[in-house]
What does this fold into?
Amino acid sequence: MKTYLTLFIVACQSVAALAQDNDNQTPYLTKSLANDAISSVVVSTSAGGISVSGKSGESPRIEVYIRGNNNRELSKEEIKKRLDEDYDMTIAVNGHELNATVKRKHEHEMNIDWRNSISISFKIYVPEHVTTDLKTSGGGINLDNLKGNENFRTSGGGLNIDKLSGTIHGHTSGGGINVSNSSEDIDLETSGGGIVAKNCDGTIRLRTSGGGLVLEDLNGTINAHTSGGGIEGNNIEGELVTGTSGGGIDLQHMSCSLEATTSGGNLNAQMVKVGKYLKLHASAGDIDLQLPAKQGLDLDLNAERINDRIADGFKGEWNKRHVDGSVNGGGVPVSADAHSGNIDVKFN
It folds into this structure.
C-alpha cells in the first residue's frame, strides 16, 4: 500500500502547487464582468496559469496576475515597462464571449533576454453555464463549478478539475491531473504526471505516459491507462478497462465489468460483483483474485500455478495450471492469465 500512497502524493504535487499560485498576491489588473453575461471564455497565454470558476457568491470578473522570471515579484512600474516593450495583452468582451490573449512581440527573435520574461496568469469568475477554450504553454489550469463544453491545454503545468459537468477535454504535457466531483464526458491526458480521479461518473477516459493512476468512487464507462506507473482503484461501478506497462494493479471493492492488464507487476482484484465480464492479464507477475461466492460464473484461469482451494459447487476441471468450469450454475465469463506467475483465487 505504501507504493500506491506514493503514487497519490506524486500525482497531486503539481496541482497542489497550482492551487497556491496566486493566493497571496495582489492582482495587477481587475476588470468587472458583471454587466456582460459571459457565456464563453477564450484564453491564450504563455508562462502563466489559468483559473476559471463558476462558484456562486463571486462577482463576475477577470483578475490578471504578473510575476517576474523565477517567480520574482515586480513593481507595477516594472511590469508596465516589460508589458509595453515585450508583450501584447488583450482583454475584451464580444457578444458575451470573454477573450484574454497574451503574445510576445518578438518571440521569433534569436536574442530574447529571457531574464526579463514575465508570467501572466488569469483568474476568471463567471456564471456556471460557460464554455471554455484555454491554452497556456507555461502554467497550470484550474476549473471548478462549470456546466458546458470545456477544452483546455497546457504544456507546462498540472490540471485541477472539480465540480464540472458536460464535455470536458484536457491535456497537459508537463504535470499531474486531479479530477473530482465531475460528470458526463471526461477526457483527460498527461505525458508527464499521475492522475487522480475521485467521485466522477459518465464516460471517463484517462491516459498518462509518465505516472500512476488513482481511481476512486467512479461510476460509468471508464477507460484508464498508464505507461509509467501503477494503478489503484476503489469502489468502481459500471465498466472499467485499465492497463499499465510499468507497475502493478490493486483494485478493491469492484462492482463492474472489468478488463485489467499489466506488463510490469502483480494484479490484485477484489470483486464484490462481476458485471458482464471479467478479464485479467499479468505478463510478469501474480494475480490475486477474490470473487463473489454466490454469483454464477464461468471460469477460465491459466497460470504457472493455481491454488487448490476449489469453490463449493464447482463443476469442471481444476488443476495446478488450468481451471475450466463453472460455479453456481455458470453465467458471467471470468478469465485470468498469469503468463509467468501464479493465481490465487478465493470466493467470499
User: Anything to note?
Assistant: The first strand starts at residue 29 and ends at 32. Residues 2-19 form the longest helix (18 residues). The chain has a mean pLDDT of 91.
